[in-house]
Amino acid sequence: MLIDSARSTLLVVDLQAKMMPAIDGAEAVVANAVWLVRAAQKVGVPVAAVEHCAKSLGPLVPEVRDLLPAGAVAGKHHFSSVAAQCLAGLPGSDRVQYVIAGVEAHVCVLQTALDLVADGKDVFVVADAVGSRRPYDRDVALARMRDEGVRLVTREMVIFEWLEDAATPLFREVNQEFLR
Question: Which of 142, 147, 153 is nearest to 98 (CA)?
Answer without folding.
Answer: 153
